[in-house]
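Most newcomers find our protein records easier to grasp once they have seen one. To make this concrete, we reproduce a full record directly below:

===
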Amino acid sequence: MNASPQTVSGTPPKVMLLIDGKPVESSTQEWREVINPATQEVLAAVPFATADEIDRAICSAHAAFEKWKRTSVGVRMRIMLRYQALVREHLPRIAKTLSAEQGKTLADAEGDIFRGLEVVEHACSIGSLAQGEFLENVAGGVDTYTLRQPIGVCAGITPFNFPAMIPLWMFPMAIVCGNTFVLKPSEQDPLSTMQLVELAIEAGVPPGVLNVVHGGKEVVDALCTHELVKAVSFVGSTAVGTHVYRLASEHGKRVQSMMGAKNHAVVLPDANREHTLNALAGAGFGAAGQRCMATSVIVFVGESHQWLPDLVAKAKLLKVNAGSEPGTDVGPVISRAAKARILALLETGVTEGATLTLDGRDISVRGYEDGNFVGPTIFSDVTTEMQIYRTEIFGPVLLVMSVPTLDDAIALVNSNPYGNGVGLFTSSGAAARKFQSEIDVGQVGINIPIPVPVPYFSFTGSRGSKLGDLGPYGKQVVQFYTQTKTVTARWFDDATVNDGVNTTISLR
């Protein structure tokens, strides 16, 4: 199976759909170019699938579900074992594609894939993860037990910033639970996603169990409203995530929607200075700030505000270049539109009175003059009323604030509408315990800047960063992709037993 872009003479390679296990060239009239953000080279053309193609993909998944849900757990698990081996084998090749289409460094691209690979490895434990419960003799001769059963066709809508990790959060866990899946990758960088899909088919995922459609809002809306889709998983912006959650919920779907963030890092004066500054620079400027778990606001407590010049010095040392170049720390942002949006927000910050302590607006990279580069940028003297604080910038921008006490820092973070992640840097166990107890954010790091949990634990963003009560991986996602059936049973040794008519509710 080859779903990679197919080259047509004189035109960019065309990205394929995947329907019923086969690559399909779309008949659409609407195409979008996939562009290398460092060079503006056109890498491929991605189709915006037609309504008929979307319906065919969903119907293929629905037809495959009847057989797939009866496939033994052992068979599903062994496919995942083969799949993780293939992903590991082809990781360097996929990382090269990912870096070219998304812009992140090769090392970060490999990390993108590896964090997704961890979820695939966790899916190999489905035999333990999906077990039900059993209790013998809950009443006279009566046993009660629960079954975890797949729910049907599931859909996934993924963002541009993690074209490997986020799809790998979704379809492996969904299909290993016995469901079938329709994936809509980001139209901005679908090439590495399609390479991962190819490997899934090579690993033995049967036709129809995994399908891929490309496009924009029309595809999203179709997945949210189609009568055969039972669940929708989304990762992306708050605006789109809110729309997905409402629309899919109105049409009776299960929905999990992981959305925007404004992640704070609180720094106490007793923190390890060098470790903290390195962590803040890495979490703020890595991946050009295009992470939903990136640190975007630093809250210096007390005397730690004196560390600001050292943070600026570290940021100045970071190398801005194409992600494919050795030694690069900060690559380009995804598109010219993204760069324009970031620059407009930076201008707003200056207008509103924040101090532009480090200006990354006019950076030029030799040999990549057309790249979508924004250099590391730091604003100090930021207040909560400023637009740069209220808006997720999604670029290599750190905002710096100062408060007198830890209580003030906790109050500041808790008043922000987002609740994806937060970090505390300290050497005090008492302060850490107080912080983790009182902070109202789903994922907390103690001396860790990006507290994304390993797949054995659930991703637990909260408040304005999440809609739906179950996370996209870990134990919670097994609940999301299965339905619990409770069976209460009584068997008789003697078929002639007759207890007579009993009109009470008791089973005794």
The CA atoms of residues 328 and 414 lie 35 Å apart.
